[in-house]
Q: What sequence folds into this?
């Protein structure tokens, strides 16, 4: 079986040869990475948002407030665990667990680095890899939504149910855009293996500029710019992060699907959200940002992509993407639900389909040089982005000023408020003032006579 997979994809030949203790160590490392990234991610978000809001953020518990998240987790553990009377006890209990397990499982096919020597065994820094690893990530992302939907349904309350329904519609809408954006990666890399995609991005292409051969970056975030932008937008929608946090909109649904949860169950939902954010950042790094490969100009160093150094580049890219998540939360307001759904179905989906069609046409032309393909790709990306930025609005400018429209309204139509926003006094107020005026006059005259 391993020989067959190696023949289909040479990058898979490095897997399936590790001893049991090394496989167990990789699994523990991926799990610990998810938990530690969550703890540090919560602290990082609160510090960054505090900086944006011109306030310090957590800075008391531990150095720089690093232990504040741990203190909050312990506080949640000792809170009272409340079970609603109308809840489905079994589903209500296991729903948060489903979300956490699916978010952590996706890390099993993410490459953290190249082959290294661990106690004399040469092994890649990845738990495992299969020929359809990216489909495993999509499956974990889709299954994680079941925890939210089931948690909202099993709560036996209105607000959680609405939050769960919103989450299911949101997953269906943006899962389509996310899947189509990954199709462009499959077409370019020629494989669905995550390690194979990282290896494909490491092959620098040569561009001829002014008679000189210059290596061009092989990151798909540059070569497949529309797919990268659409994937990142869909990823924010999949993880229920602001400005797409509609399943847990505080102003409409209290806490959404988590309204009836408390104590450790509530903490598990929070954990799943941050683990999903870190996991999708790692997936984006793998698919579009070269994975563990060093960015330029670090690549000028010969040993940049060997040994344990690539883990540093990988974690740096993940932290940068997590910062973008936090930046969006601290900058953009929440969308209305109709705007959110319209954006997914009527903007992202058509642009994605057109882009895949253009990319397929470019790949079908075999006699083009690499630089010509890159030039045509850049032109197509620019056209699509311009079309997105200048998308025509449905609102049309009035043909005549508002005051003229008011003056031309037929007699007996529905009254409008005054244009100067000065509301006239009500008839009741006029009547009360008129009743009080004679008494005041009499009192004034009597006082004058005395």
A:
């Amino acid at each position: 079986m391993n020989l067959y997979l190696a023949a289909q994809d040479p990058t898979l030949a490095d897997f399936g040869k590790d001893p049991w203790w090394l496989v167990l160590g990789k699994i523990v490392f991926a799990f610990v990475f998810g938990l530690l990234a969550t703890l540090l991610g919560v602290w990082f978000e609160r510090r960054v948002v505090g900086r944006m809001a011109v306030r310090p953020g957590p800075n008391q518990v531990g150095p720089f407030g690093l232990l504040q998240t741990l203190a909050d987790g312990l506080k949640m553990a000792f809170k009272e665990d409340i079970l609603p009377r109308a809840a489905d006890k079994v589903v209500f209990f296991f729903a948060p667990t489903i979300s956490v397990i699916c978010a952590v499982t996706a890390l099993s096919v993410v490459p953290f680095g190249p082959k290294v020597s661990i106690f004399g065994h040469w092994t890649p820094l990845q738990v495992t890899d299969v020929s359809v690893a990216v489909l495993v990530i999509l499956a974990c992302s889709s299954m994680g939504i079941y925890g939210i939907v089931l948690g909202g349904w099993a709560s036996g309350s209105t607000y959680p149910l609405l939050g769960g329904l919103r989450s299911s519609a949101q997953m269906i809408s943006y899962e389509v855009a996310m899947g189509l954006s990954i199709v462009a990666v499959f077409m370019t890399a020629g494989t669905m293996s995550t390690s194979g995609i990282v290896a494909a991005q490491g092959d620098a292409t040569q561009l001829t500029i002014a008679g000189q051969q210059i290596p061009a970056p092989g990151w798909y975030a540059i070569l497949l710019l529309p797919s990268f932008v659409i994937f990142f937008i869909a990823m924010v929608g999949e993880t229920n992060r602001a400005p797409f946090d509609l399943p847990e909109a505080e102003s409409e649904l209290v806490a959404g699907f988590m309204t009836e949860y408390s104590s450790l169950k509530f903490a598990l939902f929070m954990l799943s959200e941050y683990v999903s954010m870190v996991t999708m950042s790692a997936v984006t790094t793998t698919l579009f940002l070269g994975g563990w490969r060093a960015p330029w100009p670090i690549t000028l160093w010969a040993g940049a992509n060997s040994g344990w150094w690539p883990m540093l580049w990988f974690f740096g890219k993940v932290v940068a993407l997590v910062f973008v998540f936090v930046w969006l939360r601290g900058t953009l307001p929440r969308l209305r639900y109709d705007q959110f759904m319209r954006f997914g179905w009527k903007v992202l989906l058509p642009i994605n389909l057109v882009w895949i069609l253009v990319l397929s046409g470019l790949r079908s032309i075999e006699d083009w040089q690499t630089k010509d393909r890159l030039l045509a790709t850049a032109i197509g990306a620019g056209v699509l982005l311009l079309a997105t930025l200048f998308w025509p609005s449905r609102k049309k400018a009035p043909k005549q000023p508002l005051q003229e429209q008011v003056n031309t309204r037929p007699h007996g139509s529905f009254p409008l408020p005054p244009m100067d926003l000065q509301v006239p006094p009500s008839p009741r107020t006029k009547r009360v003032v008129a009743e009080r005026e004679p008494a005041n006059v009499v009192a004034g005259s009597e006082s004058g006579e005395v």
About this structure: Residues 2-295+307-389 form one domain. The chain is about 60% helix and 5% strand. The radius of gyration is 29 Å. The longest strand covers residues 113-118.
